[in-house]
């Protein structure tokens, strides 16, 4: 398997074991995002710590995750970008659209803070 899905109470995380996020696995990632959303998940973490290369299909999977999250009052957090993937995201000007943090722990914190703020907004 190219990635593992970790289901937590507030989010689902994708931990990639493959070095390439390409057209070979991007359709599976998109499908799993949709299935997870149907299960009630709207917050996602993509841990790209092992991903050294990403093509347009990989970027498309990331954008699908971002869109599904936003459409359902959730967020996508991308973490642990390797230099080549970080460069591609910047060249594609997606760094202003995506929530990117340095580590998995920071991604979890980001989601918990967003959930806290969302809860406060619902109260007030």
TrEMBL record:
Pfam family, one: STAS
Entry GO MF terms: anti-sigma factor antagonist activity
Location of the STAS domain: 1-111
Protein name as annotated: STAS domain-containing protein
Cross-referenced PROSITE patterns: STAS
Taxonomy, superkingdom: Bacteria
Record-linked InterPro entries: STAS_dom, STAS_dom_sf
